[in-house]
Structure formats: C-alpha cells, structure tokens
Amino acid sequence: MITNYFARYIGLPRGENLYQIKRGNNGISRDVADKIVSKFPQIDKLWVLTGEGQMFAAPELRGATIPYYNADVEQAVLLRDRLAADTGFVLPQVVECDFAMRYEGRAMGAALPAGAIVLLRAVEREAIIPGAEYVIISRKIVTLRIVRTGAQAGEFRLVAGDKENFDDIVLKAKDIEAVYKVVGKLIINQ
C-alpha cells in the first residue's frame, strides 16, 4: 500500500503523520498504533510502538523459538547439553527443529559453505532417508554429510558435497550413536 492509502485504510484523514514517522521526524503514537492493530490484529502492538519483540501477536504466527549455539556443529554437538544457547530465533516456516549451530567444515563445498547455520532435528537411525543431509555421530567421527545406502546391507555411505577433495566414509549402521537431520540452512551471502 502507498502511504496515503494506508493512512486512509487505518482511519487517518491523510498520510502526513505517517510520512513524518517514515522520515524519522516523529515516533508512532499510541493512537496510530491502535489504528494499525485494529486493522491488522495479527501484528503485536508493542512491536509497532518500539520495534522490539515479535512482529506477530499470536504465537502460532510467530513459530517456535529455535535455540542457537554459536559453535561449530561438528565440534560442539556432543557438548550441546552442557552449553547455553547464545540466542534464539523464530522462523515460522520451520517446524520440528530442535536447535541450530554453525557449520565450519569444508566437506560440503558450495552446497553448505563454511559459516552457514544448520537447523537440526534429532531422529532415530532408522529414520534416515538416503540422499538427505545429516549430522552423524559415531564412536570415531562426528560429521555433516549426505547419507546414502552402502554397498552392503547395514552400511551407510557418507558423501561430501565436495567429492573432489573429500572421500566417502563408509559406516556400519550399528556404529551410529546419534543422528541429526538438517531440516534447514541459513547461508549468509558475504
């Protein structure tokens, strides 16, 4: 909506007040915030007034808070129970996510560059879907790779995104101690 139309839509006679707010000359008054929230009840009034908190008033529109640990997933996932989350963030589109961590590895190449944030959910070993990305924990390794079926029954082949520089890892299913499915990625373009 253009500013004048928005002003009329929320019940203001003209848009001059909104133009002054946009320019930073005026703050939003309670009256204007009330008018906005009366037309858009899903928007949180405190957020309109201060810009802080959550934009959406209803928890179902916000989504769950995902704990974020500012640590490399391959180094710190085993320590997660002893770590305190550095922050949390809300992504309404992401459901069934247990936590998020940074990925600093190189094995995934361009598919998951170093510094990306991975959103993870704990799953059972039996729930592994070949072709998807997982953090796999065994007695010998902790790695984030694409999981494929192995050549023999009861084996998995862990495939790097950068196949030129990283070899596949073959792992017996019985040796896997924990599995986290990558349910989302936040790749920051720099």
What Rg is obtained from the alpha carbons, in whole angstroms? 23 Å
CATH superfamily of the largest domain, by name, is Umud Fragment, subunit A
Strand content: 25-35%
Strand order of the largest sheet: 2-1-3-4-9-5-6-7-8
What is the ordering of alpha helices and beta strands? Answer: HHHHHEHEEEEEEEE
Mean pLDDT over all positions: 89
CATH class of the largest domain: Mainly Beta
Q: Characterize the largest beta sheet: strand count, sense, and whether it forms a barrel.
A: 9 strands, mixed
The number of domains is 2
Number of helices: 6
CATH-defined architecture of the largest domain: Ribbon
- Number of beta-strand segments: 9
Unreliable residue runs:
none
First-to-last CA distance: 32 Å
CATH topology of the largest domain: Umud Fragment, subunit A
What portion of residues is helical? 10-25%
User: What characteristic shape results from the CA principal axes?
Assistant: elongated
Helix-and-strand structural type: alpha+beta
